[in-house]
Structure formats: structure tokens, C-alpha cells
Amino acid sequence: MITPNRAALCPQPPAMADAPPEILELNVGGVHYATTRDTLLREPDSLPAAALADPEHPRDARGRIFFDRDGVLFRYVLDYLRDGGLVLPECFREHKRLAREARHYRLPGLENAVKEADPRPPNRERGCITVGYRGSFAFGRDGLADVKFRKLSRILVCGKVTLCRDVFGETLNESRDPDHGLADRYTSRFFLKHSFIEQAFDMLQEQGFKLTASCGSGTAGGAAELKPGVDSEENRWNHYNEFVFVRE
Predict the structure, then answer these.
(1) CA angle, corner 51, sides to 56 and 17, nearest 5?
(2) Strand 237-247 versus strand 210-220 pairing type
(3) CA–CA dist 61, 25 (Å, integer)
(4) Phi, psi of 105, deg, nearest 5
(5) Sheet (strand 210-220) strand order
(6) CA 44 from centroid of its chain's CA atoms
(7) Of the candidates 126, 188, 135, which has an alpha carbon nearest to the alpha carbon of residue 159?
(8) Is the dihedral of CA 201, 207, 211, 216 positive or negative?
(9) 85 vs 47: CA distance, rounded Å
(10) What is d(CA 216, CA 203) in angstroms, rounded to the nearest whole number?
(11) Distance CA 176, CA 189 (A)
């Protein structure tokens, strides 16, 4: 009795040459995509359309059209070819790299859409701002196990004067450091008119700054003479925290 070959009974996936001509596979920097012929031909002057018509264009071992580019960012290029528009996630931060990819694939419409979607001004100044604050904790009846609130006495701002003004605007108090007419000078004497550290962080984030480093220290002690109305227990626990923000 002849036993049939199992391999012959199992359906085999079609090779690239046997696949329907309207379905194409791409290899972009090692990341594989599947799309239709009509999608790649959506922009006739684009590199994907030219690669489809060029029999000499590089292909991988499985016959997939190969582009030696960023495979992850190509998803947005392919979405643009499919839909004719650009939709980026809210946390997207690689606008410059995606614009470069669009330029490489000869898609001026995508390049313009990326630039318009970039929330950062094209000529925005780079720099570093350090925010620090001194504060103290107020304790309840159970001491350390019952911390009531964090009291900030003042939020300090250090950095380039023009940069600090651009970020904090009217909330910046410059009374201790009047303008001496030098546009590129630095200062460590600014402070904010409010004592909400979260508000300061929001303003930095809105202007494209990212937190890169932080440090903190604390002391436990007491002054011999306290100002009227100052709680002695609260005065014992002081701390200083500093945060470094950078915009590239």
C-alpha cells in the first residue's frame, strides 16, 4: 500500500511569484509590510511607484521589494499612500525624521503634512532650564505616618534669560535680577510668582522641554528663634529639590 506524501496533502503558501498581482509584500529595513499595487501607485512620481515599475530595484531573498530605510516610520508613509492624509499619535516626537523619510520617498505632500503637524516652531531655541524649590512638610498627630501637605516657599528658576521669559512669561518674577540689556546672559536669581510646582512643569512640557535629571536633599533641625506663626515641628523638616529640563 502506497502511503500518500503528507507534504503533498498540506496546502502550501504561494510563493511571491504565484501571489495575486494586486497584493505586494515589502521589506523596509527588515520590517515586512503587505499592501496593494494601487496603493504604491497612488503617487506616480514617488519612489514606491518607481520601484514597482523597475525590475532592477533591490529585492530580498523572498522576492519582496526592499527599501533600506527606517522600517518603523514607513508605517506612516504607507498610511499616507493608503488614505491620502496623515494621522500621528499624540506622543509622536520624530517629526524631523519622518519628514526626511517623506523627502526620500519623493512625497512632498507627506513632507508638508509632517511639518504642519510638528507642534514645535522650526526656529525654536534650544536650551536648559533648572527649576528648584525649597519647602517643608507639615505633620499630623502620627508624625511621619500622617504628612498633611507639602509647603513650598518659593520656586527658583535658573537658565538663559530669554529662554526663561519665553517659557514662563508673566509668571516669572525678575525683581531680584533686573535686565541689564544683555540678550544672551544667564541668571540664577529668577523665581515664579506662584508656588505650584505642577504648573511650572506643565508650562515646560507645553514648550517642548523634557525632564532629564533631578536631585533632592532634606534636613531635620530647628532654629533657635522662629518667626511668629511658624510651626516648630514643620520648621524641623526642610527639603530642597531641583529639576533639570532640556529642549533640543
Answers:
(1) 70
(2) antiparallel
(3) 12
(4) -80, 5
(5) 172-173, 186-192, 143-160, 127-140, 237-247, 210-220
(6) 33
(7) 188
(8) negative
(9) 18
(10) 21
(11) 6
Residues 6+ apart with CB under 8 A from 236: 220, 221, 222
Going by their DSSP bridges, the two strands 237-247 and 127-140 should be labelled as: antiparallel
Which residue's C-alpha cell is 510646582? Answer: 197
- Contact indicator for 167, 203 with CB cutoff of 8 Å: yes
The residue to which cell 506663626 is assigned: 229
Residue corresponding to grid cell 508605517: 75
Geometric angle at alpha carbon 81, from 80 and 84, rounded to 5°: 60
pTM of structure: 0.49
Q: How many other CB atoms are there within 10 angstroms of residue 161's CB atom?
A: 19
**248 residues of the chain, pLDDT tens digit each:** 555 555 444 444 444 445 456 899 999 999 999 999 999 999 999 999 999 999 999 999 999 999 999 999 999 999 999 999 999 987 787 898 999 999 999 999 999 999 888 876 666 788 999 999 987 766 556 555 555 556 788 899 999 988 998 899 889 988 877 666 566 789 888 999 998 999 999 999 988 899 999 998 877 665 556 556 555 555 556 778 999 999 98
